Amino acid sequence: MRRGILLTIGVVSMLTAAVLSTRAEARTREIPYQVKETDHSFEVREYGPRIVAEVEAAGEREKALNDAFSTLAGFLFGKNSPQATAALTKSISDSDGKAKLSMTAPVTTQSIGAGGKIRMRFFMPPEYTMDSLPIPDDKRVKVFELPAQRIAVLRFSGSARKSNFDRHLETLRKILESKGLTPTDDPYEAYYNPPFTPIFLKRNEICVPL
Questions:
Q1: What is the model's pLDDT at position 142?
Q2: Is 208 exposed, middle or buried (0-12, 13-18, 19+ CB in 10 A)?
Q3: Largest Cα–Cα distance in the chain?
Q4: CA–CA separation, 17 and 140 (whole Å)
Q5: pTM (2 decimals)?
Q6: Cα 37–177–180 angle (5° rounding)?
Q7: Which residues does 191 contact at the CB level (< 8 Å), separation at least 6?
Q8: With contact defined as beta carbons under 8 Å apart, do 113 and 42 qualify?
Q9: Residue ranges of domains in the chain, CATH in brackets
Q10: Spatial contact of 115 and 59, defined as CB atoms under 8 Å apart
Q11: What pLDDT is recorded for position 98?
């Protein structure tokens, strides 16, 4: 009986996490793109210019990821100052002028060199421009515009461990070679889900600019 109760609790917890994840994702806007080629989980996409907030962090991977995420989330949720020429939009409501920017998907990470350093990026809501975005209080956060890009993507679910991304990167490289497509920059990882998303519902992508 105890085993049955524990199993029931586990199933309810998993379903609750799935519902919460779905609701959170419904509120999170995805950066728009156009699909130019598709083959099962593989896509070639075209992205227009996008504004990103970027930070670099070093150390053990999980700690570096947590530090980078906390720094960027701080900028997004109020550790910023308005530009003198920027009018406050509807998403900026604090009396002290601090902006609350909405979260978008994905969050991307990229390994830098062999020393364990990572680069993380948040994509800014598309209604903002470089002239209307607030200025980060933390000088480690860099805000700039990426040019339009053509990107090859392999989508997969499951664990977001580095080993899983590396395994799918090898698959993506073989697909690109078979299609005669040449990478123009280093690969990066893309995460689309909140941390509490059940592992079987997670959407991960390994991406390579073309």
A1: 97
A2: buried
A3: 66
A4: 33
A5: 0.82
A6: 60
A7: 105, 106, 107, 108, 109, 160, 204
A8: no
A9: 32-48+148-210 (3.30.200), 51-146 (3.20.80.10)
A10: no
A11: 75
Q: Rounded distance, CA 143 to CA 86, Å?
A: 15
Token digits of residue 131: 């002239």
Copy the structure tokens of residue 138.
């933390």
Cα 113 from Cα 132, distance rounded (Å) = 34
Q: How far apart are CA 46 and CA 44, in angstroms?
A: 7
Residues 6+ apart with CB under 8 A from 210: 44, 150, 151, 152, 181, 182, 183, 184
Tens of pLDDT along the chain (210 residues) come to 544 443 333 333 333 333 333 444 445 789 999 999 999 999 999 999 999 999 999 988 889 999 999 999 999 999 998 886 544 444 444 556 677 889 999 999 999 877 779 999 999 999 999 999 999 999 999 999 999 999 999 999 887 788 899 999 999 999 999 999 999 999 999 999 887 788 888 899 999 999
CA distances from 97 to 82, 91, 135, 139 (A): 6, 11, 11, 18
DSSP label at residue 199: G
